[in-house]
Amino acid sequence: MKKTNFKFEYEVYDSIDELNEQDAKLIEKARKVTKLAYAPYSHFHVGAAAILSNGKIITGTNQENASYPVTICAERSLLSAASSLYPNASVQTMAISYHNQVENASSLKPISPCGMCRQSIMEYEVRANSPIRIILSGIDGKIFIINTIKHLLPLSFTSADLK
Ligand code: THU
Predict the structure, then answer these.
(1) Crossing angle (nearest 10°) for helices 115-128 and 74-85
(2) I need a surface site. Which of 46, 57, 62, 74 has the fewest CB within 10 A?
(3) What is the pTM of this model?
């Protein structure tokens, strides 16, 4: 028997002012589009914005459903739109933000994509053979930057396993 481990590093910034112009722009966009989320059940409004290899910026928001599991998260809305509009472009960086509109809730702590979204982001990273940088933040406050979805989904199942 041998033990092995998985370790990863991510960047933590105190505010958007510490970021480069392109990353700051993506976060601002993700924060702005939280207003376009359709979240009448959870009141948890999520926005995502990504820059593609062709320079285009795509956004996505969560779209809920009265049949709760039918809901689609902001990240997967964005990826579906990006792949449908520009199938040959890769996603370079995706920023994710949220505004929790439940009374007295805070929206300052960065949130991380759910398990289903991690699997979906992995699909597009593997397909393009190019890492997707992920920027996490709330509506204000601290920002985390993760350099590849591989760091959020160790021992993942991908197309390579089907061969
Ligand atoms: N949600 C997202 O859109 N992205 C995430 O990363 C976490 C959760 C949505 C799904 C649902 O509409 C609401 O947030 C509450 O779970």
Answers:
(1) 20
(2) 57
(3) 0.97
